[in-house]
Amino acid sequence: MLVGTAQTQVNKVFEIVEEWRLSENIYALRFDTTASKIGWKKGACVQLDNHLKRKLLFFASRYHVFKLSEGAAWKSVFGTSTSPDHTEFKQFQEKNGPHLKTARSN
Q1: How much of the chain is helix, strand and coil, in % rounded to 5?
Q2: Which stretch of DSSP H or E encloses residue 96?
Q3: Do 50 and 72 fall within a single domain?
Q4: Dist CA 46 CA 54 (whole Å)
Q5: Where are the alpha helices (DSSP H) in 31-81?
Q6: Which of 42, 46, 49 is nearest to 27 (CA)?
Q7: Containing domain of residue 11, as a range?
Q8: Total-model pTM
């Protein structure tokens, strides 16, 4: 897939599901928690659920669930950031970097 929009994802999944005749065998979806997949109204998971005309179990990937909660906590404390370089992380690294390297090597 060249474009990662929800509609592009759904179209490709439908194509494969129909080609392999799997629609009656799908009961759950496991996915990461990117907006294109979990959007409440137009996310890929909701569209798949609607296309199959039955409710599916949704299993969000744990890694991404933690990422969302960490991101929400960061945003509530520091606000929205558009930079990959965060001053707070750099200060932490400068103060604790030598200690962390020592702990990892032991």
Answers
A1: 60, 10, 30
A2: helix 87-105
A3: no
A4: 11
A5: 35-38, 44-51, 62-78
A6: 49
A7: 3-60
A8: 0.49
